[in-house]
Design goal:
The complex is a heterodimer of chains A (708) and B (184). With 708 residues, chain A is an alpha/beta fold. Chain A folds into three domains: 3-290, NagB/RpiA/CoA transferase-like (Rossmann fold), CATH 3.40.50.10420; 307-385, no CATH class; 448-703, no CATH class. Chain A contains 36 helices and 20 strands. Chain A has a six-stranded parallel β-sheet with strand order 1-10-7-4-2-3, with helices on both faces. In chain A, strand 11 and strand 12 (329-330) form a beta hairpin. In chain A, helix 3 runs antiparallel to helix 13 (243-255) and helix 17 (331-341) packs across helix 19. Chain B is of the alpha/beta class. Chain B has six helices and twelve strands. Chain B has a six-stranded parallel β-sheet, sandwiched between helices. Classes of the chains: A alpha/beta (708), B alpha/beta (184). Chains A and B meet through helix 2, helix 9, helix 11, helix 12 and helix 13 of A and helix 5, helix 6, strand 9 and strand 10 of B. Strand 9 (262-267) of chain A pairs antiparallel with strand 9 of chain B. The complex binds iron/sulfur cluster (2 copies). One iron/sulfur cluster (SF4) is lined by residues 314, 316-317, 331-332, 354-360, 370-371 of chain A. One iron/sulfur cluster binds next to helix 15 of chain A.
Chain lengths: 708, 184
């Protein structure tokens, strides 16, 4: 990580007003209310289909739009590069003697830094969207895609307005808004040109659809005699009817409103106040969109409708804002768009900010798998530039369990100096040199493979092979022992294939797909060696690999011959709680009588809930085993562990943990449980450090002695 | 349909929906509103009334003489100095309380976008269910500027605190008239 990034993260973390504002908003609840009575999955499938198909026919739609709009009297200019856009607009301004422009929001114009360019030519462009105007006065870039000045406090806005009006302004928000109205009113009437963006461009009719709440776009497109709309090609849809689901979803996702106050459909010029016809210029900007559309993976990013809901729910964004995470286009999707629009290289650093929790993907109305695309960016950067040597070496070590074990033994014996060495810092998942909010995990004196040998197995027709994963094997073998014991109670014989190694997710997460595939390849055979009915995992991260990713990874790396085996493993893999819940339902496990009721709060690990969809099973199984559930606030928000994230982005990780710990404490429960040893290291370490009485336990540990 | 429309429209904030059986009653209400808002022939206190089917059969000269400051000619300058803007909308959407209008004529936009109070006239029988229903009634192929309006002009750009009336109207008064004759 570059120094500047670390510094800007640090600064952003010092200033938490944006996070506070998002908290007070309570976006998830208000959004859900706006979507009441609407089938979100259905509407986002429609949007994904409409925009996905538009991306497939970008060129065709652009030409069709041009034809339709020109038939209605607009001038349409297709610009490939930012330079072409700038030249067209400056020339137009010169030709028409335009000195003053009023603008309603256009992210495309920010993408190419248009205002700066116009200023160089003596043309003054004033933003009229309140947030955009504020950041223009502050000479900043947007921190949020929908509410660009969200990072500024009312006091800071009052200062900016005082400077602009040469008058001391109060910090009352209602007053400040009136100041803006007064200041900007005159500008609309004086401007020679109005400039806007568009939310949708309809090819069939040559129509621009513009949504605003403030009503500034109505004035911008009405009062000046020339209207220039700058539209990115990704705004194109084929037909009039295609606009409907977008207009329906956008305000609900963006601001939890049913609809924006104003929606304008502009098709060709309308009359001016003096009876003349408006001059309407539409600039369709490519700037890499066509290239994106041709990329099988990144095409999906063109489905974005810029609602910013992915920012509102992102645990990283809320902490560092769009000034750190993204550039112009912010957050996870911003990282992706910036990488394309501003050349891959410039975003290498910010790609590391996504922890991959999947919160954004759940609610994206464009149905974009944002974390997967960020991972793909990482993969491309990693395969182009290669990973840092030390990191690559660390990753290869964990693919070799014998070597890994030897190293960890050494670490166990000489824990402190070894940790300090630096090398071990790069071992993903459970070692880091941070201890401000979290105690360091210790390497277990006896690894799981040796613990297992001492647990006598029953002979049974039903066999399960246990995939331990690195954390259970080396840090917390007790979890593995508990899992085995519970399964034994149900009459299942557990086998532990000694030749297993890391599941490959750490490699995958760092963009090293070849090493991840190697990890998968290494494990398949041992796991299927005995005739087992189940492959049991006690770690949600490993479950993601075994249940979901291995077949894709192997296919992606052209290891097709291993795909059937991987699919077989996937079909047999169950998470521990998933299996226990099933065994309870089948009455193969019976809770003991007269269990003393204990209280528990449950943390949904990102991998369990959003990658493999396990969240009800552990709750049901734990309830059967005598635990009363006290749900915490944001139970499915990431704890900040994120594999090696805690090592790479320690400050952000610790802030996420802090919030999580508070939510856990607030329940007053005796235990917090999560079916992910990584989360448990993070949570347990945090609770320990803060002197909490609450214990972090794996469901297996909590159920170990609860069944007959 | 009307009840649903009214509830949704008023939920958008700073919006009131009135319903009258006859045009004459609606006119009395509007005159009362103009009086209450102290419309007079001084810049900043005008009311502009953009061409509306509602006005068919109404002697606008007489009305203008009765209410000084009420203008039926909507120019840039008059609209800029208007406290109230009156326009007739073509459709209402019951599910969101939205109004829709073909605003190609610039007077319609000036009157509804610049004033502090927007009075929107609507024929009660022109309320349709939702956006898909509206899209079968209005089409860009026949209207250059279709405007949908829901509630007042608002922003939450400073600290996400809601503020009303940032560039456009602070208040939306929807006047529904049942009597269809003279509204179309
Ligand atoms: S990526 Fe999805 S959630 Fe994020 S802004 Fe785009 S459409 Fe909205
Ligand atoms: S996956 Fe999580 S961390 Fe990454 S962008 Fe989405 S919400 Fe943010």
């Amino acid at each position: 990580m570059k120094k500047e990034l670390a510094q800007s993260i640090h600064e952003a973390l010092e200033r938490q007003n944006l996070a506070g504002i998002l908290d007070r908003w309570n976006y998830p609840a208000t959004r859900a209310k706006a979507y009441e009575g609407i089938d979100f999955e259905a509407i986002r499938n429609r949007i994904a289909e409409i925009k996905g198909s538009a991306a497939d026919h970008l060129e065709e739609l652009a030409e069709k739009f041009k034809k339709s709009a020109e038939a209605r009297g607009a001038k349409v200019f297709r610009a490939n590069s930012p330079e072409a856009v700038k030249d067209y607009i400056t020339n137009l301004c010169k030709e028409k003697d335009v000195k003053k422009i009023v603008k309603s929001k256009s992210m495309a114009s920010e993408e190419i830094h248009l205002n700066k360019h116009l200023a160089k030519h003596g043309i003054q462009a004033d933003e009229t969207d309140l947030g955009e105007w504020i950041i223009q006065l502050a000479h900043q870039t947007p921190s949020h895609m929908v509410m660009p000045a969200l990072h500024l406090t009312k006091e800071e806005v009052a200062d900016l307005f005082s400077k602009e009006t040469h008058q001391q302004q109060s910090t009352d928000i209602q007053q400040l808004v009136k100041v803006a109205r007064k200041e900007l009113r005159g500008k609309y009437f004086d401007a020679d040109m109005g400039m806007s963006g568009a939310n949708i461009a309809i090819a069939e009719t040559g129509t621009l659809v513009i949504c605003t709440n403030e009503g500034n776009a109505r004035l911008v497109t009405t009062l000046p005699k020339i209207h220039v709309a700058l539209v990115g090609l990704e705004k194109l849809v084929a037909n009039y009817a295609d606009a409907e689901p977008i207009i329906t979803a956008l305000p609900k996702s963006a601001t939890s409103q049913l609809i924006t106050s104003y929606v304008s459909f502009i098709t060709g010029p309308s009359p001016n106040t003096d009876g003349s016809l408006k001059e309407l210029h539409i600039v369709l900007m490519d700037n890499k969109r066509t290239a994106m559309a041709k990329d099988p993976q990144f095409k999906e990013a063109l489905q974005c409708i810029r609602c910013a809901s992915c920012l509102n729910v992102c645990p990283v964004y809320r902490l560092v804002t769009g000034h750190v995470f993204g550039h112009i286009y912010t957050g996870g999707i911003g990282t992706i768009l910036t990488a394309w629009f501003n050349e891959m290289e410039t975003t290498g650093d910010i790609q590391g900010l996504c922890i991959g929790c999947g919160k954004c993907k759940e609610i994206c109305p464009g149905k974009i798998d944002i974390p997967a695309l960020i991972l793909e960016l990482r993969r491309r950067v990693a395969s182009k530039e290669g990973l840092p040597f030390i990191y690559k070496t660390a990753l290869s070590v964990i693919n070799n369990r014998k070597l890994f074990q030897a190293m960890l033994r050494a670490a166990f014996i000489a824990q402190k100096p070894f940790v300090k060495e630096g090398f071990i810092r790069h071992l993903p998942m459970f070692l880091s040199n941070l201890s401000e909010y979290r105690s360091l995990p210790t390497i277990a004196p006896v690894p799981f493979r040796d613990v297992f040998k001492k647990i006598k197995q029953p002979q049974s027709k039903t066999k399960a092979s246990f995939f331990a994963g690195c954390a259970i094997e080396f840090v917390n073998p007790g979890i593995g022992a508990a899992i085995v014991k519970v399964l034994n109670k149900a009459g299942i014989e557990v086998v532990f294939p000694e030749d297993q190694s890391c599941c490959g997710i750490p490699h995958w997460g760092s963009g090293s797909f070849d090493m991840a595939a190697a990890a998968a390849a290494h494990n398949i055979k041992p796991l299927l060696a005995d005739d087992v009915e189940y492959v049991v995992v006690g770690c949600a991260t490993c479950a993601t690999a075994l249940k979901k990713e291995w077949p894709h990874l192997l296919k992606d790396q052209n290891m097709d011959s291993l795909v059937p085996g991987a699919k077989k493993v996937a079909a047999k893999t169950v998470m521990f709680s998933e299996l226990v819940n099933k065994l309870i339902e089948e009455k193969k496990l019976t809770p003991k009588d007269g269990l003393k009721l204990q209280t528990l709060t449950y943390h949904d690990s990102c991998h369990a809930k959003r990658h493999v969809g396990i969240d009800k099973e552990p709750r049901a199984a734990l309830a059967a085993a005598g635990y009363e559930l006290k749900e915490m606030f944001e139970c499915d928000t990431c704890c900040g562990m994120g594999g090696s994230y805690t090592v790479k982005q320690p400050e952000i990780s610790m802030q996420m943990l802090k919030r999580k710990l508070k939510n856990i404490e607030d329940t007053g429960a005796e235990y917090v449980s999560a079916e992910c040893p990584g989360c448990l290291i993070q949570l347990g370490g945090g609770l320990d450090k803060s002197g909490s009485k609450i214990k972090a336990k794996h469901p297996a540990e909590l159920m170990e002695d609860k069944f007959k | 349909m009307f009840d649903k429309f009214k509830a949704a429209a008023e939920a958008a904030g700073n919006t009131e929906v009135q319903r009258f059986g006859a045009k004459a009653e609606a006119l009395i209400f509007i005159e009362g509103l103009l009086k209450k808002e102290e419309i007079k022939d001084t810049p900043g206190c005008y009311a502009v009334w953009a061409d509306s089917p509602f006005l068919k059969g109404i002697d606008t000269k007489e009305l203008a003489a009765k209410v000084p400051g009420l203008k039926f000619e909507v120019t840039r300058e008059l609209a800029k100095n208007a406290k109230i803007g009156i326009t007739q909308m073509e459709w209402g959407l019951a599910n969101m309380g939205t109004l829709a209008q073909d605003s190609t004529a610039v007077e319609q936009r000036l009157a509804s976008a610049l004033s502090w109070i927007h009075v929107a006239l609507l024929s009660t029988d022109k309320i349709v269910a939702d956006l898909p229903a509206l899209m079968t009634k209005m089409h860009p192929s026949t209207s250059n500027y279709i405007a949908l309006i829901t509630g007042p002009s608002k922003t939450a750009d400073i600290e996400r605190v809601l503020a009303i009336g940032v560039h456009g109207p602070e208040q939306l008064v929807i006047v529904c008239v049942d009597e269809s004759g003279g509204m179309n």
